[in-house]
Specification:
- There is one protein chain.
- By secondary structure, the protein is an alpha/beta fold.
- The chain has 2 domains: about 290 residues, no CATH class; about 375 residues, Spore Coat Polysaccharide Biosynthesis Protein SpsA, Chain A, CATH 3.90.550.10.
- Helix content is about 55%, strand content about 10%.
- It contains 28 helices and 12 strands.
- Strand 3, helix 5 and strand 4 form a beta-alpha-beta unit.
- Helix 2 runs antiparallel to helix 3 and helix 20 packs across helix 26.
- It is globular.
- The relative contact order is 0.11.
- The protein binds uridine-5'-diphosphate-glucose and manganese (II) ion.
- Manganese (II) ion (MN) binds next to loops.
- It is a multi-pass membrane protein.
- GO terms for molecular function: cellulose synthase (UDP-forming) activity.
- One of its GO terms (cellular component) is Golgi membrane.
- It holds the Pfam family Cellulose_synt.
Length: about 750
Amino acid sequence: MATQKEEEKLPLFETQQAKGRVLFRLFACTVFVGICFIWIYRIIYFPISSSSSSVARLWVWVVMFMAELCFGFFWICNQSLRWNVTYPHPFKHRLSQRYKDKLLPGVDIFVCTADPTMEPPTMVINTVLSLMSYNYPTDKLAVYLSDDGGSDLTFYALLEASKFAKYWIPFCKSNNIEPRSPEAFFGQDSNVQYAQDWLAVKNLYEEMKKRIESTIKRGAIPEDIRNQHKGFSEWNPKVTKGDHQPIVQIVVDGRDETAVDINGCRLPTLVYLAREKRPHFPHHFKAGAMNALIRVSSEISNGPIILNLDCDMYANDSDVVLDALCFFMDEEKGHEIAFVQYPQCFSNITKNDLYANSYYVVNKVELPGMCGYGSALYCGTGCFHRRESLSGKNYSRGNKLKLDNFDSERNDKRTVDELEEASKLVASCCYEKDTLWGQEMGLIYGCPVEDTVTGLTIQCRGWKSIHYSPNDREGFLGVAPNTLEVGLIQHKRWSEGLFQIFLSKYCPLLYGHGKIKIGAQLGYCAYLLWAPISLPTLYYVIVPPLCLLHGIPLFPQVSSFWFIPFAYVFISKNIYSMVESLTCGSSIKAWWNLQRMWVIRATTSYFFAFIDTVIKQLGLSQTSFAITPKVVTDDVLKRYQKEVMEFGSSSIKFTLVATLALVNLFSLVGAISKRIIDLDMNFQIIEMFAPQIFLSGLMILVNLPVYHALFLRHDKGRILPAVLFKSIVLASLACLIPIN
Ligand SMILES: O=c1ccn([C@@H]2O[C@H](COP(=O)(O)OP(=O)(O)O[C@H]3O[C@H](CO)[C@@H](O)[C@H](O)[C@H]3O)[C@@H](O)[C@H]2O)c(=O)[nH]1
Ligand SMILES: [Mn+2]
């Protein structure tokens, strides 16, 4: 047994390297050798020497080579994510022993919502309630809801939540239940041990939910409710989502001795914020909301630690705060850590992860890989920040986490009204004018992935960051897109924003040079280059099948030496990725779905993102942020749960998906039938075209659900006849392009 003195010296967290690192590195080197051979092959066998080569053939070959160079570089970036995988591990019992409640820092929790129809207020308050009932001293906890929808319905729901919290928090704590989102908790099987309590609280919850939902249905707050709280007076008929004064309402003041739950315990502070919006002021979407939250919270509670969450992401583990604090409060290394990111996990994933939203490998390998360089990505939600680093401060060795919320007497003594007035000032449109907010302070503006770019700038100011993925219980659970279209819109926003970063002054290779490790710079590129990698991908799924159709071989014969590197790279890469997925908790089917989603995303979302980024670089349009809806109709939900892909709209993305699937089908069928008719289906020809036949066959297998949706389904989620028609025309035209 360690003595107390020794115990006090033990670190609050330790890091562990992933097993098999040396083996992995050796393996990666062999694949790299294979890739080099592929490049060499493209140079040596350049078709200029053969007499049959036309200009078109030359170009086909040149672009093949360029595509393979791109894939090679992209592969290198992806290896650097795997080179240095490191798992941090906190010891929260040591933290609790060392720091009694009074010594723990204040934690301000930010929840962002933006639209009461796409993000229903009941969902939002479930998130808020799960956070209010954290196992953490309530006088150190403050929850802020930022409502970019500026909706009195959301405000009303929050008021209801603050009343229900008086029952909910003591119920959670005395029965030690998980998770603490009422909706998620009551959705589980009930526990007999506290059946009576359970039923009583459940009834309260259901009644509250009914009240909120009926008010929302009505579309307006009834007069009697409006009269119950002064806050409603902020909503006059002129207030709209995009045009209103700053609204700040301290719903629960944590300092108030009468703000207690039914057991007489203090409630955490709860604040509603709708920052000012005016038509001619850019509001910078979520980044703008977060910056307003940083300032408003600094007026009210000023906790040195900030946790930020999307409104659809509830707290799934009520002890998470203590885990996260271990990283910040470690005596040795804590002072250099700016943020601790939890993985994005979701509560609505289907059995085989139809739309590949689980990010198993990203969460268990790639992001811990970035953590190994001290540069874990900031992913926008489920992230604990040090207020200082988020607000723009540089790292310096002397930084110590301030444990005291209140930096001056002033804060403590102001009345609620005074705090609200002061907050409104900092939540106004013109407050940021001529300041560094959005550039050097707070979250960075101008990019739809404000999270990634902000994380990067924090790291370049000398801070380190942690990606912590707990083994037993997920820290947070969110809502993943449950239709194909929404998922593709999300990936378009991401890939577009990520590519913008690459092209901006924040490009990790330049901006990060000398500030973050080279592995981290390349690791960032593995994400930032999603949009441009669409070009070689499109090329690879279109040109080899067309060349097959027109009788142009693009790969070495199966019997030649040069076939070996192609086969080795292809097989080893895919087997590795499959095994990796399986060890991260995925299933074979889910891995297969991921392959399909990768092709679909790369050829649609990433491609359109690429085009839009180029247009934006030319200054022809403005940054936007397409919010992902979190609710769908029952019909759609049923298909999602049955893992039937949802098309059902005339989105141009679906035309592209269908066209690519048909190009491969037509080419393969066309090539085979042509040869059979020509009766020259000899062994040598098969050998020459085997790689292309294989590629098309693989694309066809990957696209089986697409053919199904094109030709066999009759439900509303099938591919619409108009899309079918367009894609048949386009695919046929593509097959007619003369390449020879
Ligand atoms: O003007 C806006 C737009 C969005 N949001 C909020 O931003 C969050 C994320 O929006 P969502 O539509 O759910 O996008 P996702 O693609 O699911 O979000 C992921 O990607 C975003 C960056 O593109 C990150 O900010 C998020 O944290 C990350 O979960 C939500 O809580 C919104 O309420 C705002 O507060 N104001
Ligand atoms: Mn979301």
